[in-house]
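Lab notebook, page 48
Experiment: co-folding of the full assembly
Goal: obtain a model of how the components sit together before planning crosslinking
Operator: M.T.
Materials (sequences as entered):
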Amino acid sequence: MPASVLTSAAGVIALLDETQPQLQAFALGKLNGLVDTFWAEISESVRRIEELYEDEAFHNRQLAALVASKVYYHLGSFGDALEFALGAGELFNVNENSEFVHTIVSKCIDRYIALRNPDAAQDVLTSAGVEQAAAAGGDIDARLVALVDRMFERCLTHGSYRQAIGIALESRRIDIFQRAIAEASDTSAVLGYCMNISNTLITSRAFRDSVLAVLVDQYMCLPEPDLINVCQCLIFLNNPERVAQTLRDLLEGRLCGAAGAERGVLVAYQIAFDVFESATQQFVHRVVAHLLQLSGVAIPEPTAADAAPEPTLEKDSPIARLYAILTGEVSLGLELEFLLRNNHSDLLILKNTKLATQRNSICHGGTVIANALMHAGTGIDTFLRQDLAWVRRAAHWAKFNVTASLGVVHKGHIKESFNILSPYLPKGGSESGAGPFAEGGGLFALGLIHANHGKKAIPFLVEQLKNATHSRTDEGYCEGDIVRHGGSLGLGLAAMGTATPELFGELRAVLNTDSAVAGEAAGIGMGLIMLGTGHSECLDEMLRYAHDTAHEKIIRGLAIGMALMLYEREELADAHIELMAADKDPVLRYGAMLAVSLAYAGTGNNKAINRLLHVAVSDVSDDVRRAAVIGLGFVLFRDSKQVPGVVSLLSESYNPHVRYGAALALGVSCAATGSADAIELLEPLSNDPVDFVRQGAMIALAMVLIQQSDAQTPKAASTRKLFEKVIGERHEDVMAKFGAVLAQGLIEAGGRNVTISLQSRIGHTRTSSVVGLLLFTQHWFWHSMTHFISLAFTPTTLIALNKNLKMPQVKFHSAAKPSQFAYPPALVPPKVETKEKVTTAVLSYTKAKSTKRKADKAAAIARGEAVSMDTSVPGSPLQSAPSSPGAEEKSLESALAEKAAEKKEDVKEVEPDFELLTNPARIVPDQVHVTSLRDERYRTVLKSALVGGIVIVEDNTPELPEELIEIAIPTPKVSAANTVGDEADEPEPPQPFEYTL
Amino acid sequence: MTIANANALLSKLRGEWTATKPNHQLCGDLLIQLKIALTELSFLPTAGVQSAEELLLAREVLEIGALHSIAVGDFAAFDRYAVQLRTYYFDYAAAIPTSSQRSLLLGLHLLRLLSQQQIGDFHVALERLNSVTLTSDPFVRFPIALEQHIMEGLDHQVFAAVQNVPHPSYVPFMEQLLQTLRSNAESDKLKLSVGDARKLAAKIELHDYSAQVIQNALGYAKELERIV
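Observation: model returned without errors.
Model output:
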């Protein structure tokens, strides 16, 4: 007998109209099975099914609800489907593996999240259910809660903890969150996941704090407490006392169990480095103060002569070392060392630019700044010194910029800052100085060098602000204003985020002189000092002054300052932003947009994005619109893949200011990513008919492509060519040329060893980078602001330190072809006539020389690879990988050394697919994932995977003597006579160059 | 309830129904009992191989139920029986021998649809019938012929057909059909004036509408300019 198949459900549906409940129940049971096939037929009778569900006396109401839910699901009406699924109660089986159940469950969770977390509701506002629920006053349906709870149970019993955590966090269910972590089998991995999403996905600050508090507890509960992450959480929670306590406990060997105090000390060092890298200056200060207090070290009272005296610590004791780490001495020193040692900047680029733009003062200034960027942090000022006549052409504010650029070049050189800058700093007394512009620039430079580490510079800067003259020159301007301008910026930088009321008062005094030049800088400086405090009295005061003053420059300075004060305040900043955004003065509205950018930097907050987008297309002032578009880059920098999509329409706007903004937004958010999408949008903008749009596009291109090798991004080389072309073009507009010159500086920044990154390696927002980039975007109004970008530069380095905080000889293994992350090839000089220049251009030799001096095998490798980098053809056939890469490093080394020797004769050698890098190594961000520490003698403390930065390594054989790496930083020899304007006494460049090969 | 119990009930029902003066009240009660009994057996099967005995039992219950519902004037119930019977007449036709009542009930159902003016459903039902039934079966021919007359506007033929219904149970539905035809004829008179009224209204509206279109177009242009 053949199996028969039903062709219609009409018969069963007809049963619904019977009067007997048994028959109706029977029909519903049948329909429940038939609905997936006959839903179209059943949908005509869905009213009848609903009636049954609503009939209180009917026993199978839940079954009716389930059938109705399925019908609505098939009809695509998910809101109704969810409503009835809730009515179905237990009959709705969350464990069923069907599309219906999946859909309903996800809708259910969406609605639950929307109800629990009204901020997120904006995402799903389209679904009607949410609106209803919102109208109901946010009271959550108990049935909904029950269903979600069943989902949680299911996730937990099936071991899908991540899902449970994700939903718990989105719906703000701390209880489930805790349970999921407690029950998870791979606790540490789950914790890592939580840490990551809590920082990237949770937009509400208050809730994030409570999640992090839970995480801290959970990390401490691990059998081996994950102190690194504990401290990271504590930084987010702004709890320096507990960080200090943890460090203290480690020093005393309380937290490391069996491993004992020795290991504890190393862990403490590592944590201190991480804290220093991630936290704000103020936070670190409080950690230090608390740590000293816990350790029973007396903190000396500040005296008149020394506002911040050093505490007396036993030399080389762990506590003294911790102090050195936390005050930044160690990190700064190491970074300087790295940047100098590995400097790969190409002076020929600058020279070509200089020749091509000789007649133009704007480009002259641009070239000076480009030089500063290219050598940022390296301490190499050869270029300026080589042609002092050319430099001397800088007059007035250009001179200010030249002097300030020294601060960029010597960034972080806090020990020698006063020596380096002594020719330009105000002398005081009767001695005649270098002139107001050089002096102002000098103070700004001092601030740049001491940015975030201002202890030593602050008293001096305050004094100079007080001493600056108020008398006017014959031409009618006040020389003191220029000094105060530089001084205010410098003080702001040096005291960034310290929130010291006295220093704020100093700048208030400058502001009260009501000088446009000084007042603007004072406003910015005030914001920098009070960075992220959201201090409402200060904000009110600044807003009042902005309304009173007649100078637009001052208003702008104050607006920027107020924005800085609202940094990372998120929701707390809304009231002030509202106030500024509603102002009739466009400059204050401009400030409001900057405030949104900073307050919500990196949060991806929807409200902030909506506000920015709205203003970007509706404000009447071009400046405000431009700032709003750039702000998108800041708010979305964590989600940089999204930005090209968001701004693609804006980049085609008829308004050139909006296009410019779109370009910079891409530059800011996609910095150093080499994102192909971003480049695709930027390339047409670099051919824009409007000159300043071209400028912005080129700057943004440089930011996106910084440190990208030709192998990583094919566009890198062509973009460099583009900059050259624009600079060389005779009829190009000056604005665009200036942009190209800056872009050249940016793309080669810091001797090609720094990147621009708005978040730290662990994922914290880098305060100084965000602030630096935001102030950099102000170069639109004031070229000196360009220097602020040096705050955003981070050396891409991996440095291993031993227990004495010295660099041992360690090798890192990078599992990629050397050309993948190579430096771009040096420019080839055009002809023999410039033989001199050729010799100076090959800077890669610096590194080779310092290593050769030690007759180390590594030298051979380094040189060998340098050769292979320059000569090997990309895409040449690969050498087969060694079968056991970690097995015999020595043999690898010798093999490489031999290869290097061979290469001298036969340069067409195949490229190896790995690379050995010596400590301190240049590891670009993309390279981090392929790099590992392969050393027989050393292993890392705590960190299982290398993330770059500074890592403490443990010595397996402490009894053997260690080979250490020599420190190459010279003490700069700067004589008092050596001013920029003085050719007579030209000093030696810091590193004498030699040419071999 | 077992199948034996159900069969006992059915024979009781059959006895009562075939009596010269059936007790409709009792039949109704028996039918309800039987239907509930059926829910515990394989009533209205959805798929797979079913036992012929149960299929036959269910079919007979439904057939008697359908005729009974006409006798007591519960036409909604007839509709339900009719669609349920389709499962047995078509979907499971291969599993059981053809019922003697099949033509009668199909014909009744067609007439019922026609009387309700459910012309679409009427044709759907026709599609399921084979050509032999369509051309030679008197029970089925009758409603088909009526439908043709109505389509051709030969209402008098329909009125005449009352005289020669193929089975007495056709009468109630025939009366319904005639009633429907009469009310249709009345409403036709109004149609013309409704059409005129609509035209007039459209003219008035057109003016307002065009103004609104212009307004909208201007609005869009403004928005567009803002966005770009």
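Interpretation: Residues 395-530 of chain A form one domain.
Next step: discuss with group before ordering constructs.
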